């Protein structure tokens, strides 16, 4: 790719952007990302970007709409300032759970967000662990979709937990849990859950042997914490000795951290796609960094190299 590599950040996760830039031995580009007095988002790119290969790092985490708007306006500003190529780096893609209609007269929000990002002028998207891979197809531009699973699995593997069993907390996560299990050389258990209403979950049934084992629940995101805590209770009831959890995106909405803090979970491992408050460590939540992986992906995209090596 012609043009200098530049990195900019919105206000959603500047620490991650800085870490990625450090891995690439560069600094985050200078930009004003703020608000006008009337509440509208204000963007001003200070550095010259003409002809450059620009990556904008912005997970669309809470406040989702605000962070999304910052991303859209930054892309627009870069486009109008004659950047050669703009890649939206979205480590956590908000609205991903609204990827289909579950009832009549509902929007498909994840598709609308994809349209907005494209319309703003993004040439590519780099993201991680989309709630469902089908969201890639909502974009008519290239999407590189990284996975945190190998990082999380290697970390858990290094803990040498005795007699581990990897647990999918719902039917939709079986593929993810199976890849994790293969990497660790452990067995698999599957929980069937139901959601009587949005943001509540109930364990229906479990398949697989967990008695006397160390269970590791693997999920893509933790929002209310309900899925995780219900799963941990069900595992302890069925005789698991200890329960750990892993997820890529620590959203921790409402009182999720206090629920997790009071639960049977020994430790919950997440990544830094979303910034965390200090409350997370008191809930025994440990964070590992995805910055080196994103930095490598950005360098490979910039140099037009394959990203396949990052998935092994
Ligand atoms: C569901 O399909 C997802 O994979 C997660 O299990 C879910 O989003 C977690 O949400 P919560 O923490 O609110 O139960």
TrEMBL record:
Protein's cellular compartments: Cytoplasm
SMART domains: Pribosyltran_N (SM01400)
Cofactor requirement: Mg(2+)
The Ribose-phosphate pyrophosphokinase N-terminal domain, residue ranges: 6-121
Active site, per annotation: 193
Binding site for Mg(2+): 131, 170
Cofactor annotation comment: Binds 2 Mg(2+) ions per subunit.
UniProt cross-references to InterPro entries, sorted A to Z: Pribosyltran_N (IPR029099), PRTase-like (IPR029057), PRTase_dom (IPR000836), Rib-P_diPkinase (IPR005946), Rib-P_diPkinase_bac (IPR037515)
Swiss-Prot/TrEMBL catalytic activity: D-ribose 5-phosphate + ATP = 5-phospho-alpha-D-ribose 1-diphosphate + AMP + H(+)
Entry's EC annotation: 2.7.6.1
Gene Ontology BP terms: 5-phosphoribose 1-diphosphate biosynthetic process; purine nucleotide biosynthetic process
Binding sites annotated in the UniProt record for D-ribose 5-phosphate: 195, 219
Record key words, sorted: ATP-binding, Cytoplasm, Kinase, Magnesium, Metal-binding, Nucleotide biosynthesis, Nucleotide-binding, Transferase
Pathway assignment: Metabolic intermediate biosynthesis; 5-phospho-alpha-D-ribose 1-diphosphate biosynthesis; 5-phospho-alpha-D-ribose 1-diphosphate from D-ribose 5-phosphate (route I): step 1/1
Top-rank lineage group of the source organism: Bacteria
Pfam families: Pribosyl_synth, Pribosyltran_N
Enzyme class: transferase
Cellular component terms (Gene Ontology): cytoplasm; ribose phosphate diphosphokinase complex
Protein family: Belongs to the ribose-phosphate pyrophosphokinase family. Class I subfamily.
Annotated function: Involved in the biosynthesis of the central metabolite phospho-alpha-D-ribosyl-1-pyrophosphate (PRPP) via the transfer of pyrophosphoryl group from ATP to 1-hydroxyl of ribose-5-phosphate (Rib-5-P).
The name this protein goes by in its record: Ribose-phosphate pyrophosphokinase
Species this protein is from: Candidatus Chloroploca asiatica
Lineage of producing organism: Bacteria, Bacillati, Chloroflexota, Chloroflexia, Chloroflexales
Gene that specifies this protein: prs
């Amino acid at each position: 790719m012609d043009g200098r590599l530049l990195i900019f950040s919105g206000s959603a996760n500047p620490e991650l952007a800085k870490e990625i830039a450090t891995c690439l031995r560069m600094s985050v580009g200078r930009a004003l990302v703020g608000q006008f007095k009337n509440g509208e988002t204000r963007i001003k790119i200070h550095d010259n970007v003409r002809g450059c290969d620009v990556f904008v790092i912005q997970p669309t985490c809470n406040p989702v709409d605000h962070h999304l708007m910052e991303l859209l306006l930054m892309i627009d500003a870069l486009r109008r300032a004659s950047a050669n190529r703009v890649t939206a780096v979205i480590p956590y893609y908000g609205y991903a759970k609204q990827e289909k209609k579950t009832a009549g007269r509902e929007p498909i929000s994840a598709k609308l967000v994809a349209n907005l990002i494209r319309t703003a002028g993004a040439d590519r998207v780099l993201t991680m662990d989309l709630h469902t891979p089908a969201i890639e197809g909502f974009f008519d531009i290239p999407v590189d979709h990284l996975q945190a699973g190998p990082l999380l699995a290697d970390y858990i593997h290094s803990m040498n937990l005795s007699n581990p069993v990897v647990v999918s907390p719902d039917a939709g996560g079986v593929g993810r849990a199976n890849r994790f299990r293969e990497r660790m050389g452990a067995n698999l258990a599957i929980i069937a859950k139901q959601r009587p209403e949005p943001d509540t979950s109930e364990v229906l049934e479990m398949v697989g042997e967990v008695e006397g084992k160390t269970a590791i629940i693997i999920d893509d995101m933790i929002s209310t914490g309900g899925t995780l805590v219900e799963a941990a209770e069900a595992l302890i009831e069925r005789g698991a000795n200890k329960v750990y959890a892993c997820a890529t995106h620590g959203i921790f909405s409402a009182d999720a951290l206090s629920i997790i803090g009071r639960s049977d979970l020994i430790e919950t491992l997440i990544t830094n796609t979303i910034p965390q408050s200090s409350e997370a460590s008191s809930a025994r939540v440990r964070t590992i960094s995805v910055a080196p992986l994103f930095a490598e992906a950005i360098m490979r995209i910039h140099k037009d190299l394959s990203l396949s090596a990052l998935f092994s």
